[in-house]
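Feature request disguised as a bug report, sorry. It would help if multi-protein outputs had a clear separator. Right now it looks like this:
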Amino acid sequence: MSEKRPIKELLEQPFADSARIERLAARLKLSRAAMAPSPPAGRRLGLGIALTTAGLAALILAVWLLNRAEPAGLRAVDGRLLSSISAPASSAKLVSFADGSSIRLAAGTQVDVLKNTGKALVLVMERGRARYFVKPGGPRRWSVETGWLTVDVVGTEFTVERSTERVSVDVAHGIVRVRGDRVPGGMQRLTAGQRMVVAATAEQPVSLKGVAPRAPLAPPAPPAVRAVKKPKRQAAAALAKPRSAATLFAAADDARRAGRIEDAVKILRQILAEHGADPLAGTAAFTLGRLLLERKNAPRAAAAMFELALKKGLPAALSESALARIVEAHRQAGDIATARAAARRYLERYPQGVHAVGLTKLLSSD
């Protein structure tokens, strides 16, 4: 089949094999010969050779420049072009790349490729946990999309873990930039030893560990110093007079962030007592259960709160988490039989859930 497209279009192809170059050279020779006056018979052979050589050299140079200007996409060490990576549910997996970078995937982790060029590699992490080793000074910028946030990196070592409940980013070496609607300020710069956790729902706060607060633009004025005691007054006022469920929940969140766990527990209990029919009541019970389990060491009371949260209604992601936390609460309380029953309940509803593997092992253990 003969070539019918213009030579310019053919040159824009990213790669050209030797057969295509020879066909282009032949076309170039014929077109030039048709335009030029017929030379004497003794000169035709030398002129044809000269035209063919010049055209072929120009084509080879053009192809080389195109390939040099845009390096190919990232490939694995065995030469395969990166498209999708997954680890089986029973074991971890290490994938190494030709540029010296690698990704270590935990069991059951799924990573897809959204874009793979010489300048950019965009990965979409669907689920699981992966540790990324990105070689510094490489030709392409890596980005990891997780749904709630994006991690941009040039060269470093970091871990991303995604579940239906939250996304966490831990930096071991180098620097990454985390951006997204839920990220404070829209963007945060994380360095070695720093960690960010972003929950699936807006009701849950963003956790920053090892990240120093941003310096103020100007020294705080005296009223700002007096405002330090304001959250306590707000918490007391919230307890003293009726407030909406949303206002109380915000006050509980402020108290929890400030480390005033007792105040947060009281306000959350007030929401349940005064606004039990409010849509936020389920989330308030869930948050209270977390505080009782993780901060107050009251697993039996925590299990009761998670059950109440499920009864009042929760978003899908929090419902799955509540069922899993009920198992953990009964385990901490030493009630293994009830924990096993709760694990079976979870697996019946979420057979492919985030916690399915661990709870299956619980049921199969002695």
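(second protein starts here, but nothing in the output says so)
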Amino acid sequence: MNCHFRFLFFAYLVLVSAFHADPAEAGVLLQGGGATFPYPLYAKWFAAFSEMDKGVDFNYQRVGSGEGQRLITNQFIDFGASDAPMSSEALANAPGKILHIPTVGGADVIIFNLHNVKELQLDGPTLAAIYLGKITQWKDPAITRQNPGIKLPDEQITVVHRSDGSGTSYIFTDYLHTVSSEWQLKVGRYLSVNWPTGVGLSGSDAVAAYVKNTPGAIGFVELLYAIQNELGYASIQNAAGNYIKASPDSITAALASAVIPDDFRISMVNAPGADSYPIAGVTWILVYEHPQDAVKAKELVAFLTWAETEGQKMARELNFAPLPESVQSRVLTEIKSISAGG
């Protein structure tokens, strides 16, 4: 996000605050921004919490995980959202301690548009070769070998990826980094990488729409975007050698096998276990441990506490995986440490 756009974005937030402010009700508007990955669930959370606590409202901008990290670091918003953990360097350079509050588990799925093909199986090396530009045809032996009995078209693969700083990209490139030494050497893993090939688009909505309207296309989005757009998505070979389709249960299986550190910055791609979906991750809300505004801090703590308890019950219906109770208890303890000005 360039300086001009950042200024406009901040000005927009100020205007929205002014518009929503009602002197009679003295309501609180919590400004947030970042990841598109969890937005369908977060939108439902915001609406439900505002209905319960009519003194608080939310303004959330879907600008990608990278911008979510930058906006919270610069204190332009009250909370950020990211599907990628902030780096230790970025945390050290922030003006205060930023906490990673995990909310739910989710999955990147590999969507495709192939005539009369609804099911597809892919392993990690094949997926890496497609995104490296080494496999360019759907009838490539590496793909046909994994899909016996499926009539793949004699068609060129159109590769689609995110162009913005995206936590969805981080999870996907983290996975490819784990399963492909060539990807690890040539591309790496980050919110935004130098993609070797393909069409770059901003946001999961744009990627889903492009794949839906482009025969022969392949892309990656969060699971719900595939379901909402009625797109086929592939079963991916996991660390145990099984082809697994993304679902709340297979995401939970991956989450259950993960070792979660004290700061909650976790990678769970290619997790062990027979039923684990391999391109899975958690998504975080980023908040300062000691925010400046005491009134907003109180409402933010109330919302996060609700999200980690009652809000978890909404996760499965939107194809996210709720956090295990053992993790929820640890997160609730972390949330209690938030206090304005220390």
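Even a blank line would do. Unrelated, but nice: The chain has two domains: 3-106+282-335, 107-256.
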